[in-house]
UniProtKB/TrEMBL annotation:
This is Beta-galactosidase. Residues 305-485 form the Glycoside hydrolase family 2 catalytic domain. Residues 32-181 form the Glycosyl hydrolases family 2 sugar binding domain. Residues 700-802 form the Glycoside hydrolase family domain. It comes from Spirosoma endophyticum.
Length: 806
């Protein structure tokens, strides 16, 4: 038995040793593969000799909660999503070549939820309570070189509940890297890039570099940095001729003139790259890359936000970090898909509610052109949930905030630092001191962006955070009726609606009549008992939490007020947890413009009609009702003066948006057939949309968002599964159980249908359709080849599609 174990070790460590490039001054290795995982506590697992051979082997990023079953047992409040939490252990064995002996070796974690402790070869490297911070540890002192194995153990403790107001996920849910540098190297997050002056002809670029010298003796170095344009061509350079490094950390600075800069903008998020090279005795000892986007911006109390001198509104959404069926386990493609869907709606901004996001998310925002509000905390010292970060505040807040700013300050997409969301201290005098302290922490590290906080108290005298005077931009959550008066209430103060809406919808579910608004809570239905027995909310934009508004109510106010810099709608996508106003078995939120599976709700097209230049005509609901029922038919449209609706070719009349309305409506006595809407401008047809009564469910349709994938073991295809009738109409109430089978170089990463009260697990090969649709997510392996997805269901014609992974 023992011998077997040893053999397995040897074999495993050979297989799993990272590949170190001998002559590279800096190597950054993916450290995600071949971790062993155990769900439960095991104190001895920190010891090198601990036998983990019967633990599961997996690849990070990993969220163990999403693999579990929804259950009432997991509820400490309804907020966290009803999935299991607990304690988990991860272990990884690896070898390090002798050539790394003279180097510094670090492990970098982008985020571990929550309360992690990391050991290397039995030595504790440290703990990190906050689940959203990135951190690294220096392993150099404890490593064994050559064929000897090293063991890293990580304990993750998410057992104390509740500690979040939304689904947090559990585990090493972001990427991990092993970084090897010379003893003389750029420090972690060691560059800071600013652009103090920008004209059409020239951008002054300033680069600070923090150099680490841990070799124990003074060193003389030369530093050269070059700016490369998007094609890789060198366009500017600067040199620090000779520098004597006496201390362990030295900060140097370099200035560049970048001629005729191409500016970073929403439409053209142009990125340069700065490559810094450090030489010691003519030998290259480190190379470090920093992205650069050249842009200027301003928040103005009277005229709102401008980018590169042009006034514009921030048209943003708030996002929590879960990726639906994938949980919180970071996947670049899943985040990119979310951003693509939002971009197509005309969205240009993201608020990372209410915590620092994964670094890849910010890279995507840089590349795709989003105005990001990077947020640090949902609570300060005063807790919002019994076991939350408030308990760690005193010891950790300075480090966590500093680390966020250091890590993120070179991202051109970040335009604001938010030090908190609806912080309890806004109502008491400790808010004065904490706000100042936090704003100071941020300003010491970055003066190029405003500090903001998302507030709810709009009576200035009562708002301690505002009264601290330390905020540059005020963020206001909700209370759209108050926006018009803000220039009087908060004179000379730049303002933005940091959170709006909290409007509630279930995709594809419609309650009649639709022409009154239902606010849940104060003054509206007291609680869920007044709701629907199947825990649905109506997808007409006419339900909201009492503190919020419908989408239309807020946007039509903000669009007319130049002093409002913009808005971040609560939320872009439904997220796990916070199923307001329903209790269990509802387990995910209703606030999204898109549902948890990423299917747009109808209100998506309201924003698209307002926020893009593309012609829009969106007609809803579906056309399958009881004969004689009165059905409210809505249309969102733009670039047209009017819309005419026809039922079975009979006109039901022309409607025009009146006043500042953003939709039109007809009340139609239902009769089966075809509904047709025609939008016209000056009498000319702009768009036509039709919708027909669906017959009996007949077949499955599969539509992949991407048919050609990368064979990197991470890439995803999101496949929409529709239940259609014989003619190809979506059957709007179909709820068939669909079974999936994947063959070839791919596997099933998750399934979903966007229904907020579905208790089916996400990591299985079946899903019931909800209102005609469900989703399956296919993940590639590292081998190229074909992937075949087959979907079957009793009584329906099956469907198959083929994807290529290369
Ligand atoms: C806000 C809060 C969000 C979310 C939202 C739901 O007040 O900032 O985190 O809870 O309410 O409506």
């Amino acid at each position: 038995m023992k011998t077997n174990f040893k053999h397995t070790w040897l074999l495993l460590s050979l297989l799993i040793s990272p590949v170190f490039a001998q002559n590279e001054p800096r190597t950054v290795l993916d450290f995600n593969k071949n971790w062993r995982f155990y769900l439960g506590d095991e104190a001895k697992a920190k010891d090198v000799l601990f036998n983990d051979s019967d633990w599961r082997t997996l690849t990070l990023p990993h969220d163990w909660s999403i693999e579990g079953q929804f259950s009432e047992r997991h509820l400490s409040t309804t907020q966290e999503g009803a999935l299991p939490t607990g304690i988990g252990w991860y272990r990884k064995s690896f070898t390090v070549p002798v050539s790394a002996k003279s180097k510094a070796v670090f492990v970098e974690f982008d985020g571990v939820y929550r309360n992690s402790e990391v050991w290397i070869n039995g030595h504790s490297l440290g703990t990190r309570p906050y689940g959203y911070s990135s951190f690294r540890y220096d392993l150099s002192k404890y490593l064994r070189f050559g064929t000897e194995k090293n063991v890293m153990s990580v304990r993750v403790d998410n057992s104390a509940q509740p500690n979040s107001r939304w689904y947090s996920g559990s585990g090493i849910y972001r990427n991990v890297r092993l970084v090897t540098t010379s003893q003389l190297a750029v420090d972690q997050w060691g560059t800071y890039m600013t652009t103090p002056t920008i004209t059409n002809q020239n951008a002054r670029v300033s680069l600070q570099t923090r150099i680490r010298n841990t070799g124990g003796k003074p060193q003389t170095v030369n530093i050269t940095s070059t700016i490369l344009d998007a094609t890789g061509k060198e366009v500017a350079s600067a040199t620090v001729p000779t520098l004597r490094l006496i201390d362990t950390l030295t900060i140097t600075s370099q200035q560049f003139d970048l001629k005729n800069p191409t500016l970073w903008s929403i439409e053209n998020p142009y990125l340069y790259k700065v490559v810094t090279r450090i030489y010691s005795q003519n030998q290259l000892v480190d190379t470090f890359e920093t992205p650069l986007g050249v842009r200027s911006f301003k928040f103005d109390p009277a005229t709102g936000f401008s980018l590169n001198g042009k006034p514009m509104k921030i048209l943003g959404v708030c996002l929590h970090h879960d990726l639906g069926a994938l949980g919180t386990a970071v996947n670049r493609r899943a985040m990119q898909r979310q951003l693509e869907l939002l971009k197509a709606m005309g969205c240009n901004g993201i608020r990372t509610a209410h915590n620092p996001p994964a670094p890849e998310f910010l890279d995507l925002c840089d590349q795709m052109g989003f105005i990001v509000m990077d947020e640090a905390f949902d609570m300060w010292k005063k807790k919002k949930s019994k076991q939350d970060y408030g308990l760690n505040w005193d010891v950790w807040h300075k480090t966590d905030l500093e680390d966020m700013v250091r890590r993120d300050r070179n991202h051109p997409s970040i335009f604001m630092w938010s030090i908190g969301n609806e912080i309890r201290e806004q109502f008491d005098s400790t808010g004065l001191t904490i706000t100042k302290e936090l704003a100071d922490i941020v300003k010491k590290l970055d003066t190029t962006r405003p500090v903001t906080s998302a507030l709810t108290e709009n009576i200035p005298e009562k708002n301690f955070i505002y009264r601290s005077g330390a905020l540059d931009v005020l963020g206001f959550n909700y209370k759209h009726e108050a926006y018009a008066d803000f220039p009087k209430t908060f004179p000379n103060q730049a303002i933005l609606a940091s959170e709006t809406g909290s409007s509630l919808q279930t995709r594809g579910h419609y309650d009649m009549p639709s022409d009154s608004v239902r606010m849940w809570g104060k003054g509206g239905p007291a609680n869920f008992k007044d709701g629907n027995p199947d825990w649905t909310a109506s997808a007409y934009d006419n339900e909201a939490a009492y503190w919020g508004s419908t989408h239309e109510q807020t946007w039509k106010v903000i669009k007319k007020l130049p002093h409002m810099a913009g808005l971040y709608v609560w939320t872009g996508f439904d997220y796990l947890g916070e199923p307001h106003p329903y209790p269990w078995p509802a387990r995910s939120s209703y606030f999204g413009i898109l549902d948890l599976a990423g299917f747009p709700k109808d209100v998506y097209y309201l924003y698209q009609s307002e926020w893009t230049n593309q012609p829009v005509l969106h007609l809803f609901p579906h056309w399958n009702w009881q004969k004689g029922a009165n059905v409210d038919v809505w249309a969102y449209y733009n670039q047209a003066d009017e819309v005419e609706l026809f039922l079975n070719d009979k006109s039901l009349g022309v409607r025009k948006k009146t006043g500042d309305d953003l939709h039109v409506m007809w009340r139609v006595p239902y009769e089966a057939g075809t509904l047709k809407a025609v939008s016209r401008k000056a009498g000319k047809v702009v768009l036509t949309r039709t919708m027909s009564t669906a017959g009996k469910p007949a077949k499955i349709q599969l539509i992949a968002d991407r048919n050609t994938l990368r064979a990197d073991g991470k890439d995803l295809s999101f496949v929409t599964v529709n239940v259609l009738d014989e003619q190809g109409n979506l059957v709007p109430d179909a709820n068939h159980l669909i079974t999936f089978n994947v063959k070839g170089e791919g596997s099933l990463a998750g399934v979903d249908n966007g229904y907020q009260a579905s208790l089916e697990p996400f990591k299985v090969s079946y899903r019931k359709a909800y209102n005609g649709k469900c989703l399956t997510i296919i993940q590639t392996t590292e081998k190229s080849g074909k992937i075949t997805l087959n979907a079957t269901s009793e009584g329906l014609q099956a469907a198959t599609i083929e994807l290529i992974s290369q």
